[in-house]
Write a structure and sequence with these properties.
mainly alpha; elongated
Length: about 290
């Protein structure tokens, strides 16, 4: 087998793995004290990234058109030259151009229609008055639409998060879908650790996203993080046991080690501890440069 064929096969295998991974949806389903890891490999489901891009591009185009309408109206009020007014309005900033280029290069699609005035059967004054009225109407309409879209951002984020996780019927005929778990805790100090279910789609291959990994986590009295960068271990859970052992002169404490290679991965491990074990003893900030 030639090197060229071998490389082509490797690329094909990698592509198949990425496609399989992109179709995989994973979630932890809560039913009282029971937690079940649910995984689905399916061709169904929304293309979440495309939906996210669509919403971001739509809001961006709304803002661009609103900005251009404002500039055109101001220009019309200060000059009688229609061409000059519209030329001034059609000069977006470099930052807007850069943002639009990302979507255009990816999808080559516009989401909003531009407004064109046919003034062949009207005088220049009539065209100008109509243009001013149209611009004013569009400015008010787009401003309202931008406000509505911005107000719905939290809803969109929730919907996109839910679109990444499985939905269906389990073997007992019960619906299985996205859940938002509200944990009630005592008066212990709580750290600002991200939600496990929100991080799960990015770490679906992680041991803490598997039934066995979560089981080992629950069984551990002491949980520590290890890293190739830091020589010392970071105690994530069971710090009181470690302190008591040191006070009693014990040199070794049995602990469950979790190797992490990034701060975000550390945050995911902490979120798993918080969800399945109890409040962790650190927020991991000392390892932020990981």
């Amino acid at each position: 087998m030639s090197n060229k064929v071998r490389k082509a096969q490797k690329r094909k295998v990698k592509l198949q793995k990425r496609q399989k991974s992109s179709r995989e949806r994973i979630a932890i389903h809560h039913d009282g004290e029971t937690r079940t890891l649910i995984q689905q490999h399916t061709d169904k489901g929304y293309d979440v990234q495309m939906v996210r891009d669509f919403l971001e591009q739509l809001l961006l185009e709304l803002r661009v058109q609103h900005y251009e309408n404002l500039k055109a109206l101001r220009a019309l009020e200060s000059t009688n030259d229609m061409k000059q007014a519209y030329a001034a309005a059609a000069e977006p900033s470099d930052s807007i151009i850069n943002q639009m280029t990302v979507f255009q290069s990816k999808y080559a699609t516009a989401l909003m229609a531009s407004n064109v005035i046919d003034g062949d059967d009207a005088t220049e004054r009539e065209v100008k008055e109509f243009a001013k009225e149209l611009l004013q109407t569009n400015i008010e309409r787009r401003d309202s639409q931008i406000g509505h879209l911005e107000a719905l951002q939290d809803l969109f984020e929730e919907a996109l998060m839910c679109a990444r996780v499985p939905f269906g019927i389990d073997r007992d005929g019960n619906p299985v879908g996205p859940q938002r778990v509200h944990r009630v805790v005592g008066d212990e100090e709580q750290f600002g650790i991200p939600d496990y279910d929100e991080l799960l789609p990015r770490f679906k291959e992680h041991p803490m996203a598997t039934v066995n990994g979560i089981h080992e986590l629950k069984e551990a009295a002491v949980i520590v993080a290890t890293s190739a960068i830091y020589e010392e271990l970071l105690v994530l859970y069971g710090a009181d046991i470690v302190e008591r052992a040191r006070d009693e002169g014990e040199r070794e404490v049995r602990a469950f080690p979790v190797e992490v290679s990034s701060f975000e991965e550390l945050q995911f491990v902490l979120s798993a501890i918080q969800k399945f074990v109890g409040p962790p003893d650190t927020d991991g900030e000392s390892w932020r440069d990981l």
